[in-house]
What does this fold into?
Amino acid sequence: MPKSAKSKAEKMFATTQNKDSRVVKEKEKRQQDRADHQTTLRALRLAKEADEKKAVEQTDSKIPATQSKTKSRLPKSRRPLS
It folds into this structure.
């Protein structure tokens, strides 16, 4: 006995629904993977910035406060009194 048009349509509809749900799941998975990747990159960037800041602070702490970073170009006799 041949299948009715209604049963064929229901079968096609179910197949389409399954395909749509798979596509949506794949899309959500890709979005989640991208968000995870961005989170990882952000964490690495922040760690690198913290390390660089720490290194700068360590080099700055090695320079005595009385020693200036740049030398005055004026001779000692012409420098302002301080």
The helical segments are 5-62. The mean pLDDT is 85. The CA atoms of residues 60 and 67 lie 11 Å apart.
